[in-house]
Design a protein that fits this description.
This protein is mostly helical. The chain folds into two domains: 85 residues; 35 residues, no CATH class. The chain is built from four helices and two strands; from the N terminus they run αααββα. A hairpin with a 6-residue loop joins strand 1 and strand 2. Helix 1 packs across helix 3 and helix 2 packs antiparallel against helix 3. The N and C termini lie far apart (54 Å).
Length: 147
């Protein structure tokens, strides 16, 4: 799997890579549990809350490896919750897909677009430039500009 990191957030690539790799490690460690078919959103949200509690405990312990792995668990359960909601398997809280005030959402908008938070429509990403802006040298201080 390759993830394209936009130029505007390229400086976050090391942290993103480390975090995604931790998510994959935790998924591999728990693969014996199977996928989440048959689990409803309410159950997953309960498991997510338990993972947040484990993350809090890891933070309090000061163990950086545990912090990373528990944060990855939280992210994995959030991903599972999103997958269940997108697939319409929402037996838990929240509106069911197709009910008034909801809309169908493609899992991922086209490159260079984001979803409007109210309508769900794809709109051009205002923060994503279609080209890299030219680099700008920092201004020299006033003294050197004005002699």
């Amino acid at each position: 799997m390759q993830i394209a990191v936009p130029t505007s957030i390229q400086n976050l690539e090391p942290e993103l890579r480390r975090f995604v790799e931790a998510m994959v490690v935790k998924l591999r460690m728990n693969r014996h549990k199977g996928k989440w078919e048959g689990l409803d959103l309410r159950t997953i949200l309960g498991l997510l809350r338990a993972e947040v509690d484990e993350l809090n405990a890891a933070i309090e312990s000061g163990n950086q490896v545990e912090m990373l792995l528990e944060a990855a668990d939280v992210a994995n359960f959030a991903m599972i919750a999103a997958a269940i909601a997108i697939n319409g398997e929402t037996d838990g809280p929240g509106p069911r897909p197709g009910s008034p005030g909801t809309f169908a959402v493609r899992a991922r908008p086209r490159p260079g677009y984001v979803r409007d938070g109210e309508t769900g429509e794809e709109i051009p990403d205002p923060y994503e430039s279609r080209f890299d802006p030219p680099s700008v040298e920092p201004d020299m201080d006033r003294k050197s500009r004005h002699g």
